[in-house]
Amino acid sequence: MIRAAASLCLAIAPNLAPGCPAPLPLEVAPEQIAELTRWIERHSDYAASALGPPPIFLCQTGEVIAYEGHDVVVDSELRAAYDLRNDRIFLVLPWSASDPRNLSSLLHELIHRAQFAARDWPCAAATEPEAYRLQEQWLAERGIEAGFNWFRIEIEARCLSDHHP
Question: Which of 21, 62, 111, 115 has the most crowded CB, counting CB atoms within 10 A?
Answer without folding.
Answer: 111
